[in-house]
Amino acid sequence: MIDQILSATTPDGNVRAFAASTRTLTEELRRRHDASRVASAALGRLACGALLLATREKEQARVTVQVHGGGPLGELVADADSAGNVRAYAQDPQVELPARTTDGKLDVGRAVGQEGYLNVVMQVAEDPPYQGMVPLVSGELGDDFTYYLAQSQQLTAAVGLGVLVGPEGVRRAGGFLVEVLPFTPPAQVQALQRRIEGLKSVTELLMQHDSPLFLLEQVLGVSPTHTVAHAVRFSCPCSKERFGRGLIALGPDELQALADRGEEAELVCHFCGEKYYYSVEDLRALRQQALGEGR
Ligand SMILES: [Zn+2]
Known about the structure:
Radius of gyration: 21 Å
Strand content: 25-35%
Number of strands: 13
CATH superfamily of the largest domain: Hsp33 domain
Bound molecules: zinc ion
Distance between the termini: 53 Å
CATH architecture of the largest domain: 3-Layer(bab) Sandwich
Shape: globular
Structural class: alpha+beta
Oligomer: single chain
CATH topology of the largest domain: Hsp33 domain
Strand order of the largest sheet: 7-6-3-4-5-11
CATH class of the largest domain: Alpha Beta
Number of domains: 2
Largest sheet: 6 strands, mixed
Mean pLDDT: 95
């Protein structure tokens, strides 16, 4: 099954909801970063959360979510857009932690840490980007996205995220975002809250049926209407040329010095692990470009 995200509303129009199944892209994150089980879970949850935020914008949107929790994974960053592209990295993706003793689940909260913040930078269409930052609630990320939507966006919303990792790789990954529109009767809001609190975990639901529609039906308690599905995928737009822009920014003198020392440059993309090599000739060519731009 391909990864996809589904947008929908309840038949009464009071609730907007989004759900995603993201196993393939989470497995790609795991593989590209050689990530531990707990890091794969954190990266998969963050990537799915970023995709859900980008998808709820009605226009073309790009979002960067940055999490600093003070935990052993270090900084985590995910970039997503409303066309369904996402990439993510953790500073130390090989760190592994023992499972939680309470329920045997991966200890994402401890791996991410709880002493820090979640920062969202959103760019919608041609509008200037806006930024919202909230302190972390648990480092489990689902709760933290929920808190961000409440605090920073003043939304009555809930986010659930989950990743199940087996010894062979990622078995299930996905999540949902449910948003109550203004003027919804309070009794309906409370009923939905109780329903979400009583739900099985996202991964248990996806194990039952690996489908965003099934996830939404379980969350909402009704069959949603106006469902629109689109594919989501891992994608990193990096290239030798883009990284070359960074080298040009060093300036002609520094590039000359590198080339004179006969040093080749190797740059690694944090997001996808791709390596780019710049030979001495490449550096000289970049120096020429830097000279041209300095004029
Ligand atoms: Zn890349």
